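Quick one: co-fold with zinc ion.
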Amino acid sequence: MKLPCVFFDRDGTLNEDVGYLDRLERLVLFPDCIDAVRLLKRAGYLITVVTNQSGVAQGLYDEHTVREIHRHMAARFEAGRANIDGFYYCPHLVDAPVAAYRRACECRKPLPGLVRQAERDLDIDVARSFVVGDRWRDIEMGRAVGARTLLVRTGYGRTEEARPPAGIAPDIVVDNVAQAVVWILQRDRG
Ligand SMILES: [Mg+2]
Ligand SMILES: [Zn+2]
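Sure, here it is.
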């Protein structure tokens, strides 16, 4: 049976947005994010991280670094009994300085390619899923795939909230991932 998933943006949502996260030492997870994921897992959700990493296309860091950061995050969450089921990232940019990543891809948010990859890998019920992120492009992606969407006020969230684009609205705006999980679990029961 297909399972619903909570798709989390990474930078500004699960961890502090430090500009371009170009080395593991700069990774700072937000308090409560591991607890939040554990509660969702317990309620039967798959958990994925979907993140634009155009720093790769810009030559600021390489895919090895992205994967190292994801392995580290996976271990931290696993140690908190909050396993993340998959990490998906887009390393591309249409006008990338690094030729190997110069591409009009399908996976750079707001396009839904990362959700589609996860959906295939994990047999996700996207219509019963949620997207949590701090940027309008996260919300736009979530709406494009028919998921429910939550804008968090961490990262760029407050700035984004103050400048809503025409035609895109989240289902709800919450302060952080802990509040996001409370809302999701209430919806789930209701
Ligand atoms: Mg973000
Ligand atoms: Zn891409």
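If it helps, The radius of gyration is 15 Å.
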